[in-house]
Each structure stands twice: as structure tokens, then as C-alpha cells.
Amino acid sequence: MSELQGGCACRKIRFRVSQAPMGVGVCHCRQCQYSSGGGPNYVALVMREAFEVTQGEPKAFVSPGGSGQDVLRAFCADCGTPLYSDPVVLPFLAVKLGGLDDPSALSPGMHIWTVDAPSWHQMTPGLPVFERGPPG
Question: How many domains does the chain divide into?
Fold first, then answer.
């Protein structure tokens, strides 16, 4: 994999990912529903040291994740684009696929936090489905 590049819709914030993601998932947690406008969020799990904001300064807020631990949720203060979530006690970030310049090379490998999914969220046939996070 070559480097992944991304940023927000207004292009004031840019970032890069220097290593292949550990995995790609569809997150149905309630906080992801807020940031997506109702549906799940598509995220690439990226090791913290492989992620770098190269331009601009994301705004962030902290809220409890499904585990009860704090999660920092970064977005562009100008256009509102969700960029990544940082589960501060874990060694990775959840980078939103919608923020990547070209997300077409990545495809989901699992559905997570489906316990929070409304009945109309569709699950991809054949992918593993976890009520909470994947077993670790």
C-alpha cells in the first residue's frame, strides 16, 4: 500500500497515513450515527504512529465510547467533516473513510457495535458482525 492521503471537504485540514490499516470496519455505535447523520461510519483502524495531520488543526470533543472509556472525536471546525476518532487508551485511531482522498482501495471487513444499530442499518452479507467491538 502506498501512503493514504485525506482531509476535510473544505481542504483546510489534511492528513496522511503511512502504513496499511490494521483493518476496516463499519461502526454502528450511537456516536458514529451522530457524526454520520444517522447511518454507520466506515473506518480504517490505523496505528497511531502511522497517522499525521499535515495541514490545519482539527477541532475535537471527548465523549464516552461504548466501552465507557473516553474517545476523542476530531472534525473540521469550518466544514464539519468528521476526520477520525481516537480511543485514547488504545494504540490506534479510527480514520473515517469519507475523509480519504481515494477510499476505493479499502473495503470493510466487519461490522462493529451493532448492538446500537437501528433495524434499518444494513449488514453486509458474509462479513463478521460483532455486537460490540471485535474480540481482542
Answer: 1
Q: Which residues pair with 82 in a beta bridge?
A: 75
CA separation for the pair 18, 10 (Å, rounded): 23
Nearest to 83, CA basis, from 49, 64, 55:
55
Residue 132 lies inside a defined structural domain of this protein: no
Q: Is residue 133 part of a domain?
A: no
- CATH, residue 109: 2.170.150.70
Taking a C-beta distance cutoff of 8 angstroms, is the pair 3, 16 a contact? yes
CA–CA gap between residue 49 and residue 40 (Å, rounded): 26
d(CA 128, CA 89): 24
The answer as to whether 61 is a domain residue is yes
- Per-residue pLDDT of 14-55, as tens digits, reads 999 999 999 999 999 888 898 888 899 999 999 999 999 999
The H or E element spanning position 32 is helix 30-36
Q: How far is CA 128 from CA 75, 78, 112, 124, in A?
A: 28, 36, 9, 9
Cell numbers 467491538 label which residue?
133
User: What DSSP state is assigned to residue 81?
Assistant: -
* Global confidence as pTM: 0.91
